[in-house]
Amino acid sequence: MLLTVDQVSKTYPGGRPVLQDASISLAQGESLSLTGESGSGKSTLLHLVAALDGFDAGQITFDGISYSTLDDGGRAALRRNRVALVFQQFNLIPSLTVAQNLAFHARLAGRHDPAWTTEIAGRLGLDGVLDHFPEQLSGGQQQRVAIGRAMSVRPKLLLADEPTGNLDEVAAKAVLDLMLDLVRVSGTALLLVTHSQSVAARLDRQAHLAGGRVT
Amino acid sequence: MIRAATLALWSHWRRHPVQLLTLVVGIALAAGLWSAVQAINAEARASYARAAAQLGTDRLDRLSRSDGAPMSVSEYLKLRQAGWQVAAVLQGTLRVNGGGVTVTGIDLLAWPDLPAIAEASSGSIAPVEVLTAPGRLFADAELAKALRDRPDLPPVSETTALPPRRILTDIGTAEAILNRAGQISYLLVLPDQPKGRPPLAEIAPGLTRQAARGTQDIARLTDSFHLNLTAFGLLSFVVGLFIVHGTVGLTFEQRRPLIRTLRALGLPMRLLMRLILAELLLLALLGGAIGLVLGYLVAAALLPDVAATLRGLYGAPAEGSVSLRPIWLVSGLGMAVAGTLLASAQTLWRLSRLPILAAPGQHRWSARPRAMRMQMLSSLVVVATGIAAFAVFDGLIAGFALMAGCLLGAALALPPALAGLLFLGKRMVRGPLAEWVMADMRAQLPGLSLALMALLLALAANIGVGTMVASFRLTFDGWLDQRLTSTYYVNARDDAQGAELAAWLTPRTDAVLPIRSVEITTGTHPLFVYGIVDHVSYRRHWPLIAADADVWQRVMSGQAALINEQIARRDGLWPGSTITLAPEWETPVAGVYSDYGNPTGQAIVALDRLLDHFPDVPNTRFGVHLPADQAEQQAEELRAVFDLPPGAVIPQQTLKAQSRAIFEKTFLVTGALNVLTLGVAGFAILTSLLTLWSQRLPQLAPVWALGQTRTGLAWLELLRAVVLAAMTALFAVPLGLVLAWLLLSVINVAAFGWRLPMYLFPLEWVRLFALALLTAAAAAALPMLRLRRLPPAQLLKVFANES
After folding, report:
1. Shared-domain flag, residues B145 and B237
2. Closest alpha carbon to B592 in B613, B566, B617
3. A89 CA to chain B: closest CA distance, Å?
4. Within this chain, do residues B63 and B208 fall inside the same structural domain, yes or no?
5. Which of B93, B451, B480, B572 has the highest Cβ tally under 10 A?
6. Are residue B208 and residue B91 in the same domain, yes or no?
7. Which residue segment(s) compose the domain that B493 sits in?
8. Residue A95 is nearest to which of B432, B443, B800, comparing CB atoms?
9. DSSP 8-state symbol, B744
10. Is the pTM of this model over 0.90?
11. B678 or B373, greater pLDDT
12. Residues 6 or more apart whose Cβ sits within 8 Å of residue B781
């Protein structure tokens, strides 16, 4: 398995448990959707897999690396080199142009392949806006840049948190099509958090979170 | 409705306590340093007024000779005989412990109604003691103590009714101690003049009547000094307002959604604006009150040195303690309120035009270059206005106008210039992080620009004032070496002892140079005329700044005079001009010499020529030349043989050390204000970084998510602040040098009457550069530590989709 989340629990200080013995797994090139109601712990689980936050109990292993053995630098290296993230709020870097945003993650990882980035830009329909700044783009365009940035690093695992949540129906479908297409072409595994059952249905497998547990 | 809206508005401060603190501290700093300077100025001016009132002569008109020469006793008697109620005054300077003390001798028979005399009469001193030989001197406690050590002076009485460094006595006693028998400086026109007395022009056509001057003379003399202090206070005020402006801008940027909601809920904009204004007013009063306390403490700490400076430089009767004045409190609070409203005006105006449904404001990158170009253009206009004012006006106004134009213009030009540099930097650096850092710094500029402008002004002021002081120090040291060439200086008790001293010293030394002078008045200004004998030390060392080719030959043969720079610049007298030293004594000016630290005019002529016109000039001071290794032994011998007090023989090195000490004290206050201004600028950076904190997380979180550690990002944050400060410091160097040039060549000339050469001190720039980096690093340290310790959950909130 590329990713194994084994009975992971997480409680934020002073709050109720967000995750309780949650377990999922994901193989190379596979896609998995995580659905659930607001507050069910979907985003938290995604953040734990992305090594953005620590957990209280359980085990997460990705690409043969146990998260328990990683310090802050190791977690940062894992995010930089092996996984990529797409957020609902796009979270592009406003001070960089579209072209610079697209290449940014790959360059941080030292794996920038201009030809691949150009191909991604073409597939995402961003050719005409490469010298624009994020604020000059529509929401759909910004999310395509975010996907392009994530894919440019050729991650083993793409983590997407409600990537179409801020888009209208037409833009959401277009963005999802492009993301699934890119994932398929590059053989990347995908873990996608969504509220939408129709979006979830397009992925290989579905998992549901309720009260912090995977059902 | 008002209560609900107020509570909603104030809830912002509960969530952003640092912003509230920043705003209040910004107002307090702006008001504090301004109030401190105002307190210092007010105290000094009150001292002048008190001094004049204490002396009791400030409200009387004066009669003096139109040509400024001393009056004769016969003129005085003629006026008295004609029925004019006048009292003769002889004013001069007595050297006490190496410094000048003003002696005012008044005909106390004619005008005994003086506070000091009244105080003495109510005590144990009989009036006859004051009027008969040896007379009696009145002085404040400190001066009285020093005078009692002088056996050559009459008995001294302490009085609380006299300003510092002033001796009051009967005119007869003054004549004796000043060695100016039969001279009168001016006449006081007493109240209750008899009717029908003949007009002045008829009895004494050479005399003119001047209206009561009160404190005008000293106030005019010290105006430039107070103006310099005010300029510093204004600079600090502006720097403080930068903090206020930045904080208010950010506060209302963050309150926009709340304001939209309140308006959507039916709150009229007018009411909302009133509530916001009331809030600002309240905060301004709170900050202003804290600022007043701060200002009082700063003023109390600085005033003793300022008073010493005013006494040393101008002979002004300034005292060293500060007291609370209602007008000061009101004006301090007024400045705090006015400054806060001024700093908030732009934000309030934009807020008043905020449409309810507008999208949340974001800086538009595409629009910024145009705004930057406009700012650069404004900067050029401001500088050009300063230059135009410099061309049109003269003196201090011209200097300050050009200085204000340069400082404000440079501050306005800083953000566009930094943006340009960062744009170039982004192109030159390699690597995604470096590129991001450059781009991010550029994006941060609008939020940091005011703090960086404050830093620029503070650094430039430091470089400018530092260069001026250091240039002055260097020049002053060289000048002291030129002026004080004698191995030691001797003061005799009287002319008789002076003659004995000269006779004893002549065979035992290389040279004994008499230092003889007389005080006269030119127009309304005092002028000291010195007579010297020819000696190689004058010819070789005297610090001439302009001279005819045969200057010494002409001066020593009695054909011409040297004058000091102050009088040359004030009256436009240069080699080739003619100066009037007495009614029948006009002499050409052959040279001009620098005379730093002297508040009065000075002229030098051949001793014989001086004695021709003023035969009674005392002969009590001498400069003695002999090999340095014999000086100490001979001084001891001299003291023993002539029973001289310790202060009567002063080695050259002691005199130089005293002069240097006065010099250092003079610039202590500017140094202190420099440090305070830099501190305020450092605080401005800190507050900007803290207030920008909430805006930084959305910029940093994505980069963190893409694989950077919090520690790495924290160091980059520190680096950003340091790099921006470094670039600002680089801009500050040329600006500081322009400022130094203005201070040395324009402001000082107008303020003090002398022009100084400008020296460059690159090591000082390096020190200030390091200080700027340190200031920025210290300011960025707190946000950096916060970021380093920030829990991931806080950063994850940036990505949160669910509440």
Report:
1. no
2. B566
3. 7
4. yes
5. B451
6. yes
7. 488-626
8. B443
9. I
10. no
11. B373
12. B718
